[in-house]
Structure formats: C-alpha cells, structure tokens
Amino acid sequence: MSRHLDVRAVVLGSRPLGEADRIVVLFTREIGRLDGVVKGVRKTKSRWGGRLEPFNVVDLSLFRGRSLATVTGADLVAGFPQLRTRRASLTAAAVTCEAAARLFGDEEQHERVFNLLCRALKAFDDGFAGPALEAPVTLGAVVKLLHEAGFLPVLDQCACCGHGHQAAAFSAAGGGLVCGECVGEGVPISGAAVEALCDAVAEPLDRLRTLPPTPAVAEGLRHVHALFMHHTGGRLRSLRFTC
Ligand SMILES: [Zn+2]
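Above: inputs. Below: predicted complex with zinc ion.
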C-alpha cells in the first residue's frame, strides 16, 4: 500500500499534540474516521494549517507513518462561513461532529456517513430557527448517525416484546420505545417527543431544517442521548442540557 494518500475529509475536531503540533480528527470519504498529525502548526498556519478548522471539508494529502498519518497538504472544499456566525448552528455542528467521532471506529470506510456529515453541515450553514437543542435538524443529524452506526431507535413497536402497543416509555438499554408491560427501566416519553423522533428518522435534513423548534425535540434528543451513552459509554460533551 502506498504511504501517500489523498482523501476528502470533514474536520470533526482538533487538539494540541506537544508544543508545536496538532491532531486533527477527520472523517474521510475514503477510509472513514482517522486522526492526522499537523506538524509545526504555527508555521503551517500561514500556508494551509488554517484550512483545518473544525467543520471544514478539505482535500488532504496524507503520509502514513508507523502509527499516525501526517497531513502534508490541504485544500479547502467547503468552509460553511454562515455556520460560524450563529451560536445555534455552531452547537448543532459540534454535537453532530462529536457524535460522528465517537460512534465510528478508525478506518472503517463509510461513505454514507461522510455524505451525511456534509449534508448536515450545509443545513446548519443554511440556518434554522430556535436554539440548537430544540431544532428538528439537530435531532435528525444525531438520529441518522445512530442509524448508520446500527443503533436506530425502535419506534414502530415495543423494542422489548415486539408488540405494537402504545409507547409508554423510552428504554436506552432496550433500544427504543417500550410498551406498558415492558416499561422496566424506561423513562416516560411524551407523544410529541415520539413524533419528533419519527420525523427525525423519516424526513431529510433539508426538510427538518425548516420545521419549527419545540421542547418535544429537546426531549427526544435527551432520549437519543441516553441511547448514545448506552452504546458508547460516555456523554456527548457538546450537549448542554438545561433540564
Ligand atoms: Zn413490550
């Protein structure tokens, strides 16, 4: 295998590495999630280091060393400038990118996830009404990522017994809605939150972006976050619930 690699990637995040370098967390179209090292970031900032800001889509040249891949060049494909001017859009992007970074393992090709991330960032850049955690498009992005990871919440029947009883609660351990007989450790869920979750699964992000924000969406997001924590073992740090 060639040690040089050209990929298109969404920058999910970054963190310092030692005094002068940075690690960029990438989701590539070609090989899925990947960490890349940017050497001497202060020096490269003036050339192309600034193109590696979180939420950018970039074309990258990589050199694969023994452990980590080093970024040797970057061209900007999409920078989503409007996203960066709105707090709600930034929050939605941070939640979505953190979820993607945590749900998928290193170097598993998953082009649908790459495309989903690009669509989500475009939708956040186009804008939406209300706070991020009440916006149907934020819930939609997280639910669709869970779907791609194999953790789509069961919404059309009881996740435990399979019967079509009316939903009484949401069980993260059970994997979705549960009926009155299986309620167990489930958490009560409102009918409006069930509807918000169904919309998040069924509707495209472009459409979800135009739907009004509601507290039921935030409730749905709390249940989905419980499902995320059940599968990943940790919280989404970008989420700041007020209740
Ligand atoms: Zn049941």
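Strands lie at 4-17, 21-28, 32-38, 57-64, 69-78, 167-171, 176-179, 187-188.
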